[in-house]
Design goal:
alpha/beta; Quinone Oxidoreductase, Chain A, domain 1; Rossmann fold; 2 domains; 26% helix
Length: 348
């Protein structure tokens, strides 16, 4: 088969690799039908995730068709269409038993495209497939479902739930890429008074308005002034960091009110300064996190019921063989206008 293989920082190639095989009774092999590219993949290519070593097949977001299952799998059969979660869960370790699947101690957590070969390939092996896949009804398309592999549960759990967004809050989302847009969509579920999006790119700020932002501002346009107008000078109740750079994290700390919450979603490859000399007295709560995907069944039900409108997040479509070109488009949103790039087995 062919797959996108990491060759070291800034190097990737779509090349022939061996087909995946069942290596554990709880494995399943899927034919990858739809796959997408994550901002984390760009961090990997930038050298920010040293656990990813050359030779690794990238990718952790896919919808596929089951082609083979291990002897320990009783809830999946070949031919079924499934969502492959970005998080793999053994289900029995101390963390999995309390729903913290991202911290799995028995070979799970975020492993696809990270510690084991991922899903940006024609076929993929999914460990613990009985707990780490979700059967999809015919009413949910591959394109919509693949957005629930990572970005929607990540933004919802690590941003909205960790940030404790409440009715009437002023919520600021720093970064209007796919994760930031999904956070705006999730925040809207809790009836905030204001949702403010911050980004450098005009196209992404326009997209933020489509997803429910009341106001938008660029980081060099004094976002604190805008937020003070909206909150009578108090600052934001919740600030969600959705980029992963020192500057954006430090910006979040300047926008939050006393007693407010900063929810960091972004993947950070460099240290960010924590200004405790300013924050220690202000009762600020800072949360970080890797998604656990415990919310995926809920989000799937909402998607199926028409309560989550995610279709306009997809801006570019490619055949899976065009994945190298798709990376170029996704990595240059300022010029391409890319939000989410989807690749399919069938060209559309």
């Amino acid at each position: 088969m062919k797959a996108l293989v990491y060759g070291g920082a800034q190097r990737k190639s779509w090349i022939d690799v061996p087909d995946p095989v069942i290596s554990d009774p709880r494995d399943a092999i899927i034919r990858v039908d739809t796959v997408t590219i994550c901002g984390t993949d760009l961090h990997i290519l930038g050298g920010d995730v040293p656990a990813v070593t050359p030779g690794r097949i990238l990718g952790h977001e896919a919808v596929g068709t089951v082609v083979e299952v291990g002897t320990g799998i009783t809830n999946l059969v070949p031919g079924e269409r499934v969502l492959a979660s970005c998080i793999t869960a053994c289900g029995v370790c101390a963390y999995c038993r309390k729903g913290s699947y991202g911290q799995c101690l028995r070979g799970g957590g975020w492993i696809l495209g990270h510690k084991i070969d991922g899903v940006q390939a024609q076929y993929a092996r999914l460990p613990f497939a009985d707990l780490s896949t979700y059967k999809l009804p015919d009413s949910i398309t591959d394109e919509s479902a693949v957005l629930l592999a990572d970005i929607l549960p990540t933004s919802y759990e690590v941003g909205i739930l960790n940030g404790q967004v409440r009715p009437g809050d002023t919520v600021v989302v720093v970064g209007s890429g796919p994760i930031g847009l999904a956070a705006i969509l999730g925040a809207r579920l809790y009836s905030p008074s204001h949702v403010v999006a911050i980004d450098k790119a005009d196209a992404r700020l326009q997209a933020a308005k489509q997803f429910g932002a009341d106001a938008t501002v660029k980081p060099d346009e004094d976002p604190r002034e805008l937020i003070d107008v909206l909150t009578d000078g108090l600052g934001a109740d919740v600030v969600i960091e959705a980029v992963g750079t020192p500057a954006t994290f430090e910006l979040c700390a300047t926008l939050v009110r006393a007693g407010g919450r900063i929810a960091n979603i972004g993947v950070h490859g460099k240290p960010a300064t924590l200004h405790l000399e300013d924050l220690w007295i202000r009762d600020i709560t800072i949360t970080t996190g890797l998604v656990d995907t415990y919310s995926t069944p809920t989000l799937l039900r909402m998607l199926g019921a028409g309560q989550l409108d995610v279709g306009h997040m997809i801006t570019h479509r490619f055949p899976i063989e065009g994945i190298e070109a798709a990376y170029d488009v996704f990595a240059s949103p300022a010029t391409s206008g890319a939000l989410k790039v989807v690749l399919s087995r069938h060209t559309r």
